[in-house]
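[agent] plan:
  1. take the single chain provided in the ticket
  2. run structure prediction with default settings
  3. attach structure tokens to the ticket
  4. add a short note for the reviewer (M.T.)
[agent] executing step 1
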Amino acid sequence: MGALSYVLNLIPLPTVYAHCDIPCGVYDPTPAQIAAHTVLRMTQLLGEKKEEHDVSRIVHVKEKHGELVEEELGTLENDYFKPEHYEKFPELEKLLKSAVKLSITCRQNIDMDSAQKLLEETQKIAEIFYKTKDFEPVRIPSGYPTGGEIVSHK
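[agent] step 2 finished; step 3 output follows
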């Protein structure tokens, strides 16, 4: 082992995580929307269920999907959206930050207003995403117990 290798092995390096190891070009806001619908539905159920076992399971699912919203939006923010997107859609940066904050609020509380706003902001991000690809965004019925819509494209 050379001296440089030895010294580099002594330096602690942070673990880096990525959507994938290569710039795959596969990005989609749909998982974030589904996760936001799930957070909303789990929040609705927490208002209905009183059994300790049910509440524990629902909270776990709400936490997991709140984290998924943050992860999926983080992938779009860090890997897909480029400076030109932020220039063309100046509200994008604020929407991304706000959606992550709402997700954290939803995980910390039972708050229907925040859960609904999380879904709405995730949908607005999805609309911008499709516009950056020159697709026309459309809202279609979700078919989920939450009601509402999923943003897709024509």
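[agent] step 4 note for reviewer: The chain has one domain: 27-153.
[agent] ticket updated
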